[in-house]
Amino acid sequence: MAHVLIIGAGPVGLTAAMLLAADGHRATVLDRDPAAVRTVEAATGGDWRRPGFKQFGHAHILMPGGFHLLDRELPGAVDRIREAGGVTYNMICGAWNVGSAGPRQEGDERFETVTARRPVLEAALFATAAQTPGVRVLSGVTVKSLLVGEARTSGRPHIA
Fold first, then answer.
1. What are the residue ranges spanned by the domains of the chain?
2. SS3 content of the chain, % helix, strand, coil (to 5)
3. Are the CB atoms for 64 and 109 separated by under 8 Å?
4. Can you tell me the distance from the alpha carbon of 6 to that of 30, in angstroms, rounded to the nearest whole number?
5. What are phi and psi of 108, to 5 degrees?
6. What is the pLDDT along the chain (160 residues), one digit of tens a residue?
């Protein structure tokens, strides 16, 4: 199986690493933030900051399709998001009492998802990834550039 390098330990990078590991690959994730700030306690206490990342403290809502994929493929990650303070939310619940939209209907559960502030979401995914066999997260690592030209493996860039 392949060994995949992922640059960035945000929700997409961490989820990709865990899904690759579930398929038998090894994944190494490079994260510029130190591991000490990637805890639920630091996230909820406001100790984890990312200057220049303006939406970092905002609430994030996983799109229902992505949420259901995450719940099906990595249920431990969803459990950890909820344990960290993530809240289940149905994206069309506001329409159930609006005239022509009508009440809840069979199948509306497909619009359910989870929401949390971005640091809480990331801390929960980070904790899950750190315990996932086949995933290695290197914290405090800043990628400076991708090198082009002569690669160690023909046709594949490498990092500095």
1. 3-159
2. 40, 20, 40
3. no
4. 6
5. -65, -15
6. 889 999 999 899 999 999 999 999 999 999 988 888 888 887 777 777 776 677 777 888 889 999 999 999 999 999 999 999 999 989 888 777 776 767 778 988 899 999 998 888 989 999 999 999 999 999 999 888 776 655 566 666 665 5
Fold of 3-159: FAD/NAD(P)-binding domain (3.50.50)
Q: For residue range 5-43, what is the model confidence (pLDDT) as tens digits?
A: 999 998 999 999 999 999 999 999 999 888 888 888 877
Question: CB-based contacts of 117: which residues, under 8 Å, 6+ apart?
Answer: 43, 57, 58, 59, 60, 85
Query: What span, in angstroms and rounded, lies between the C-alpha atoms of 122 and 125?
Result: 5
The answer to whether 156 and 105 have CB atoms below 8 angstroms apart is: no
- Write out the H or E segment, with its range, that includes residue 92: none
- Distances, alpha carbon 17 to alpha carbons 4, 24, 39, 40, in Å: 8, 11, 18, 20
